[in-house]
Every structure is written in C-alpha cells, then in structure tokens.
Fold this sequence. Notes:
Layout lengths: L1 E9 L2 E7 L4 E6 L5 H11 L15 E9 L5 H8 L8 E9 L4 E5 L2 E3 L1 H11 E4 L3 H4 L3 H11 L3 H26 L1 H21 L3 H15 L1 H17 L4 H18 L4 H27 L4 H20 L7 H18 L2 H42 L7 E12 L2 E10 L7 E2 H4 L2 H16 L6 E5 L7 H15 L3 E5 L3 H5 L3 E10 L2 E8 L2 H13 L5 H12 L2
Parallel strand pairs: 3-13, 3-14, 8-12, 12-13
Antiparallel strand pairs: 1-2, 1-4, 4-5, 5-6, 6-7, 9-10, 10-11, 14-15
Helix pairs in contact: 6-14, 7-13, 8-12, 9-11, 10-11, 14-16, 19-20
Amino acid sequence: MLRRLTVRDFVIVDRLEIEFGTGFGALTGETGAGKSILLDALGLALGGRTDAGVVRTRCERADIAAEFDLPPDGPLRDWLVEQALDADEEAIILRRTVDAGGRSRAWINGTAVTLAQLRAAGEWLADIHGQHAHHALLRAEAQRSLLDAHADAGELAAEVAASHRAWQRALELRREAEADSASSERERELLAWQLRELDELHFDAAEWAELNAEHSRLAHAAGLIEGVEETLEALGEGDYAVCSSLRHLDGRISGLADIDPGLGDVRELLSAAAIQADEALHALRRYRDRLDLDPARLVEVEQRIAAVMDTARKYRVQPEDLPELADGWRSRLEALVARSDPARLAAEEAATRARFEQAATALSAARRPAAQALAREVTEAMQTLAMAGGRFDVALEPCAPAAFGHEMVEFRVSANQGQPLRSLAKVASGGELSRIGLAIQVMTSRDSATPTLIFDEVDVGIGGRVAEIVGKLLARLGRERQVLCVTHLPQVAACADWQWRIAKAERDGETLTEVTPLDDEGRIEEIARMLGGVNITATTRQHAAEMLSAR
C-alpha cells in the first residue's frame, strides 16, 4: 500500500509530506482547493505524463516521491531483481522530478531509471481511476480490456495478438514471394555469384592484419638485417662489446662495494644493466636467425594484398569489412531462398494460423464465463444505484479473425425495466453512465493485483441515497485494499475510514494548497460543510455526526 507521499513545488503545493493509512480514505475540500492535484502528483511518481507547467511559479523544479510497501515476494520483487534495482528493503520509493524546462528524471530506490521502468513498477503498485474514466468505457478496446482483466486473461490476450501478427507476417511473405518471384530469382543469382567470389578469396579480418605486418617486415628486410647486425656488433660481438664491458664493470664495482657499502645502489644498477644487455643480445640473435631476405615471399604477399584491395574497391568497402559484407549477403540470400519455396511458406503460414486459432479459441473460452459473471455482478450493482430493473450484458459477437481474437466485445445496458438491451454508448445518459461506470470500475478493480486503488471524483453525477451506496461500495472495497477517493459528496466521505481536508491558504501573498488530517470533530465539521455550505448550523452538524456514526 501507499505509505507516504512527498511533494515539493508542484503546481500550488510548496512543501507537503503526508502519510497514508489502510482501508478507505476520503480527500475532501472546496472546489478548486487542489484535491486532484495530490493525485496528479502521485500519478507523476507512477510514471504519468508531464510538462513544465507542473512546476510551481518561480521554482526550478517539482519533486515528487511516493513510498509503497514492497510485498515480500511476487512479480514486483522479481522484476526489481531483474532490473538490478534494490529489492532488499520492505519498501519501494518512486521519485520523479520535472525541471522548469520540462525535462523529467526518475528514480527507483535511489537508482536512476527510465520513464518506462518507473511506469512498469507503478502498474504493480497503484491503479488510478480518473473522474472521466467512465467515458473510456464507450470505446470497444476499453471494454475488451476490462473483460480480459476480469477473466484473468491478459497474458492470453497478448499471446493472441502476437500470434496474429506472426500469422499476418507469414501471409504477407507468401504473397510477396508470389508477386516478386522473377525479381527475387535475379537477386538470388547475383547474390550467389558475389558470395562465390568472396568465398574463393578465402579472406578474413585477422589475415588482413597479419598480411600488412608481414609485408612491412619483408619490404624492409635489408634495413632490418643491417640494423640488427650493427646492434649485435656493439652489444656482444665486437672488440668493445657493451655486454662484456658491463660485466667487467659490474665485477669491479662489486668488489668496491664489499669495501664500502655506500656503492651498493650502484652495484645493483650495473648488475641489472648487464643482465638486461645480455637478454637483449640473446633476443637479437634469435631474431636474426629468423630474419632473411625473401623476395619471392614479398611478391606473393603483395599479390595477395592487391587481390583483397581490388575486391574491396569493387564493392566499395574497406578490406576488413569484407567478411561482414559476406555475412549480410548470405543472410539475404537465405531469406530469398526461403521465400522462393512456396511449400515452405505455405506450411509456415498454416502453422502460424494454427497457433493463432488455438490461442484465440482458448481466449474465447475464458471470456464467455467472465462475461456472464461481469454482467451478473454489474446488474446486481445497478439495482442499488437508482436503476432498479435495469440490466447489464457483455455481448460477444463473432467476427473475422483479428488481433483481439474471434469476437468483438460490446457492453450493453437496459437502464429501466422492460427496455431492450442496447449499446452502452447509445442508451446511457450522463448520470447513468457515471453510475454504471462506477459499478464496473469497482467490480473490475477486484481483479487487479494492485494494492492501492485511487478514485478521482468518479462519483460525479450522483447524489442522495445512491451516493451513500457508492460510499459503502468503496468502503467494502477498502476492507480488501487501500482505497483513496477524491469526493465532493458527504455521503461518500462519511463512509471512509479516515479523511483529509484539502484547502487553499494565502502565505506571503501566494496561494498554496494545505492538507489537514481530520479527527472525529474535524470530520463532523467538514461533512457539515459539505452538507450545508457556508452557513453551518447545529442541525447540519448533528446530521454529519449521524452520518459518521451510521457507517
């Protein structure tokens, strides 16, 4: 659940740190006081979209941090380990900053992450239902997604979409092969000829480096031999050989150092120099034994280099890039050969379609009972939401194979007794849509694994007895999850386990948002204000107290 939210310089919030409780919490206040601003800030920490306008006037950046309980095990902790993020604590902290230029940065447990990573973590932690969320229910894709979530078939739906893409790609490849058979044949012949030429060259990048080194050595062999002989003469083979002189001097200084230890450092230096000079002498002798003039080999190497250079120029690449060029041609040729095999392409198309059909059939089987259950649950909820006698149905209409399966999903409703079921988009009034949408959101929220559910003024368009029922629905949901609700209805707020008042305040000539946790007396005053407006009387206070005691 959400433990703590820290907000700095966000819209009209300067400094705010609030701790959240369990169960159902209500956020109330005057219109425009900034109730939804807190949820906007939380949405930003969960990876929502943003812009420079969220930064408080004359501030450098907005900073939001949200701390959640981290379940001891489960997919979120596994995901954190996979992403090399700290998963050893009992909490997870999501942080987001936005500077005055609109640039955004994100962190999880103190480690910088991408916005996609922040959003992925947020999806396991909280689910926000906006005040216009019920309008999304008019879209076919939203209805289908809700049903699949209710059927616990999200992964199966993703598999259907992926298998449909694979099938369509196989179908496209077969059709392309049939349409381009002549041009493909010409390209295959050209690639095969070019690959034969490169294969006959027997060239690789390692050989190119060795060829150049050998050519340099052979081309300068005479100079190398002369220089080596001269150095050997000076080191150990002439009358005044350096190695002999060093050994003599080393022996002389060693005797003197036995008399005066102060010459010890000099003895060590001369001894090391004598040893190194001897090693250089032996190494040069071994090198001289291997080094010889070989004009024939030089010609052979130069011819090999010329052949490689000619081929590289022909195909306009560097010599060392020839192997990579061949690999690309080989991959392209394999693809063309595969496309030129009608039987293989047809078999691949049939196999991918069979995988799609299998997955889509399984998805249909999961959707049918879920559709019946969702229809029954929402219909029952409608009876208590001033739509007695109304019905809700989830229709599964067969359609041509598509990325979403074998059927279209359509929510249908009859708001009153005796009326036929019709598309939700065509028959629901604004108030009815709000109530039906709230019922669907509450029912489908139970399918979500997220521990925190947030409702931002989803009770717009209702009131009276229906508002009380909505409050009890949210309170019942709060016994299973942490539920936060921004509301303007006293009936809903009275059902909450705890309540905060959001208000504007003037400070140093600036309008800022303040949040006040309410005790029992504060809740009576706030709910009385919600009931009676500006003039709060003893009667409205008594009514507020009765509402709170009845929850």
